[in-house]
Amino acid sequence: MSLPHAILTALVEKPTSGLGLTRRFDRSIGYFWSATHQQIYRELGKLEQAGYIRALPSAVPARGQKKEYEVLPAGRAELAAWVDTAEDPKPMRSALLLRMRAAAVVGGTGLRDELERHLGLHQRQLDEYLEIEARDFPPDRRSAEADRLRHLVLRGGIELERFWVHWLTQAIAELGEAGGLGEAGEPGEAGEPGEAGEPGEAGELREAGGPGDG
Amino acid sequence: MSLPHAILTALVEKPTSGLGLTRRFDRSIGYFWSATHQQIYRELGKLEQAGYIRALPSAVPARGQKKEYEVLPAGRAELAAWVDTAEDPKPMRSALLLRMRAAAVVGGTGLRDELERHLGLHQRQLDEYLEIEARDFPPDRRSAEADRLRHLVLRGGIELERFWVHWLTQAIAELGEAGGLGEAGEPGEAGEPGEAGEPGEAGELREAGGPGDG
DNA sequence: GCCTCCATGTAACACGTTACATGATTCG
DNA sequence: CGAATCATGTAACGTGTTACATGGAGGC
After folding, report:
1. What's the order of all strands across the beta sheet hosting A68-71?
2. Which entry of A32, B60, B66, B115 is 20 to 30 Å from B85 by CA?
3. Mean pLDDT of all residues belonging to chain B
4. pTM
5. Inter-chain CB proximity A131 and B208 less than 8 Å
6. How confident is the model at residue A58 (pLDDT cuts 50, 70, 90)?
């Protein structure tokens, strides 16, 4: 249940219309929680019905007419409660890593180009973040608590992109060494140890489970 | 459309039943593409109907009866085609970063504990990955292409966890310095520059848009 | 009048999550 | 037999994605 809270946060920062929110989600907020305009309108409706936000009275309630929303006290309370909530991190999801694992069993010739393409994209994103950091968080300026939180969030994005750039660079170098990809011979159904005889656990990537599990 | 391909990959590696897949998704595969047993059964049905997989004839087709699947040539072809597909990385999604941004506007007392809790979880995950690496990828062993791919995937997981551990440590230290969180005074509606006067863009985090966008 | 852009929406579908239902097997 | 466990599924709902619909305002 994060999208409504993302919207509430954005609206507390500044009352905005649906399309305005969409644009803000394409920039700073969407850097760690993306949303399309359809999701946003749908959610704005729910939030209004719940009494968390209301349309500013200045707007005419007609289709195609701009409508700005502001957060009501109940919405602010809800948001504050959510911040203090315990919520486990969701496991990572990367289609690229998945495709790499698939390439390990069926081969794949185009993966290398794809890695380089992703490297470019992440490098661009990293540059964008660094520009924002340089503009909004100059090193000398003694900043308020709220600004330091925002800076921490941005640094999270920066370091995440650095991780991708680093990993992709490594991966490309390592695949280059071996002379490409997909020329590694037929992987076969299962060349690993513990293949078909044991009906139990072994045979995958020999995963954890035995000694001293925390 | 990644889940069906994740399942195909798992089945190519080794024919498995629905519950077996579920367990494998809780371990190695799920480390970068998680799925519940309901999703898996639903998808197995679709894959079978599409002619990508079939139940091994040994199994009795009855409810509550174990049913193992294997990949058919069409499924293998589909998987190979997907590996060579171009697909943009999905933007990151982190509820924790979102909550931090929310905390910047409404305050929040429990966030610090939450950061420490997450730090513990990520540290544990990192240790688990490192154990797997030590067991499956000893440094001296000259490995085949497929193994090197799998190692790269695992290292992706390792470095991602290291990123989180590092960032969370930083964040906790920085919040500690200031003496907690939520004691930073009332953030108010908008203490930032460019608050209510300008109806346009400014006022958020001064995001990109002006000079030299790439 | 027509086209484009801004803005708000609807509809349909795919994917993910949670809760529950049903049958087989094993252990006591 | 009853309870626990393994295994396969259904149902309902919430969220995310894609395509399209509606309407106003400005330019030509």
Report:
1. A16-17, A68-71, A53-55
2. A32
3. 82
4. 0.84
5. yes
6. low
Write down the pLDDT at residue B1.
84
How is residue A81 written in tokens?
A: 């409660």
Q: Please give the Cα distance from A137 to B105 (Å, whole number).
A: 17
User: For residue B175, what pLDDT band results from cuts at 50, 70 and 90?
Assistant: confident
> Quick one: tokens of A202?
């072994």
Q: Are B126 and B167 in contact (CB under 8 A)?
A: no
The two tokens of residue A206 are 């020999």
* A95 CB below 7 A from strand D atoms: no
Mean pLDDT lowest among A19-33, B149-163, B178-192: B178-192
A·B CB contacts under 8 A: 299
The two three-digit tokens of residue A188, written as one number: 């076969």
User: Collapsing DSSP states into helix, strand and coil, what is residue B68?
Assistant: strand
Residues in chain B with CB shorter than 8 Å from the CB of A4 are none
Where do we find the tokens 């698939």? A102
B201 vs B209: CA distance, rounded Å: 10
